Amino acid sequence: MEQLELVSFKLCPFVQRSVITLLYKDVPFKLTYIDLANRPEWFRRLSPLGKVPLLKVGERAVLFESAVINEYLDETTPPPLHPQDPLARAINRAWIEFGSACLMDLYRFTTAADAPAYEEQRQALTDKMRRLEEGVAPAPYFNGPKFSLVDAALAPLLMRLDLLNRTHQFFDPSEFPRLVAWTRALTDLEAVRDSVVPDFAPLYLDFLRTRRGHFATFLPAGT
Ligand SMILES: N[C@@H](CCC(=O)N[C@@H](CS)C(=O)NCC(=O)O)C(=O)O
User: Fold this and answer.
1) Cα(48)–Cα(161) distance, rounded to whole angstroms?
2) Would you say the CB of residue 53 lies under 6 angstroms from ligand 1?
3) What is d(CA 104, CA 108) in angstroms, rounded to the nearest whole number?
């Protein structure tokens, strides 16, 4: 198989989706980190939207957009992680898209400038979490006993919600029993645990401190 190289930013939840998929499938790949605040020239040239992830497929192509990258990885490496049934697959794709919208809400929530904006974004995010709670019946994964691409796509969101809520409680976990169970099943997986750098939690919290949003006022002083 051609060399796969994933271009990443250490804290990016979208790249993490592909790292989970690659680790779960045990596919060898190279991970190259860039600093988004100081994008190298070669990255600017390669990335049409200026965003990570990028997946370099040998010398043949550079793919962008995490959902597209994951579908390509799924079509080219075993085992298949999308349901066989076209309707089930479409439902999974819809929730992957929903997961992307949640990640954008999470970013707005963690960077909202003041208390009113924070509360507005908290409502928007928890409203989406309620939708997700209703849309999922983890047993233990989205589609039942089999881990799927939709799990790989939602795991980065769920682990961040869990980490942030442990740091400063902004939602009541007892309102989201299905999400809590799903999060636990996902974070128990080696592919999910190993999909972030070992010092992910302090790095993420430090990153949020540098954003100086209202959420950062709840964080303990950093190192
Ligand atoms: N829709 C894209 C979103 C990717 C994305 O927003 N990546 C962020 C980092 S987590 C990024 O590169 N941001 C740089 C920018 O927006 O300029 C995907 O699913 O791949």
Assistant:
1) 30
2) yes
3) 6
Locate the ligand 1 atom nearest the alpha carbon of residue 12 and give its number.
10
Indicate which atom in ligand 1 lies nearest the CA of residue 65: 20
- Ligand 1 centroid–CA 36 distance in Å is 10
Q: Is 36 in the pocket of ligand 1 (CB under 6 A)?
A: yes
Percent of the chain with pLDDT over 70: 100
Which of 14, 72, 104 to probe ligand 1 with, by most ligand atoms within 8 A of CB?
A: 14
As a whole number, the mean pLDDT across the chain is: 96
All domains of the chain in start order, with CATH? 4-76 (3.40.30.10), 86-218 (1.20.1050.10)
Q: Check pocket membership of 88 for ligand 1, CB cut-off 6 A.
A: no
- What pLDDT digit, counting tens, does each position of 188-214 carry? 999 999 999 999 999 999 999 999 999
